[in-house]
Structure formats: C-alpha cells, structure tokens
Amino acid sequence: xxxxxxxxxxLREDLNDIVENIKLIAKKTNYGVNNECVVKxxxxxxxxxxxxxxxxDLLRSFLITGQKGFVKSxxxxxxxxxxxxxxITGVYTCVKYELTNGEVYRLFPRDYSSNTMIKNxxxxxxxxxxxxxxxxxx
Length: 138
What we know:
Blueprint: H1 4-8, E1 19-29, E2 32-41, E3 46-50, H2 55-64, E4 71-82, E5 88-99, E6 104-107, H3 113-132
Antiparallel strand pairs: 1-2, 2-3, 4-5, 5-6
C-alpha cells in the first residue's frame, strides 16, 4: 500500500537545474575560520549552507594526501523527511555530496529563510523557462 503522506509531499526532481555552481569555502571572520558551502544560482544569487560535519576539512584531507576524483556528485536536492517508523512527515532541501567511497553528506541552509528564497528562485526559473522556450534549457 502506498504511503498516503507521500502523495501529500512532492519532491522537486529538477531542483538542481537552477544551480550554476556548488563549492565549499573557508571564510575568514573576526572569530576564526568558518567553512561553508556556497550554492550559486542561475541568476547569480548565492545561498549559504552550513558545514557542520566538517566536509570541507574531509575533502581537503583527500587533496593533501594526493587523492583525486573522490567526489562522485554534489547536488541541490529535495528529500523526504522521515519519522522513526519510516513514515514521510515532510520534505527538506539540502546540498547532497556523494563520495566515491560510498559516504553521503548533507548540508542544510544556514538560515530558515533560505528555503523560501530557493522556492522563489525555483518558481521564477520554472516560469521563465516555460515561457522562454517551453521544452529545453536556456
């Protein structure tokens, strides 16, 4: 039997289409260095994601030890939020890094308002995309 909640919540499968670039950076502040993930969108706007799990440092360790090709993919995605029993309770947006060793890391927006900004830019992109050429990427 299909989960009723799954019908209520929809994933934007093409969310990554609005992304121009995703990169991890070390940003110097008055209080030290903050690592963060910057997602640059099609219109030049940037959304900041937290690097709470020290992914920047992990990837840097691969570089320092001479390893290459360790990132399998990095994408802006929607995923289902699940409760302890595995029932769908909502949808969240994250940057998902998949490494070639099978590890998966998810980074979440720094600010709650970033989710609404992503929705606004996604909706704008989809409306413009449909109006400009109807069936293909610009």
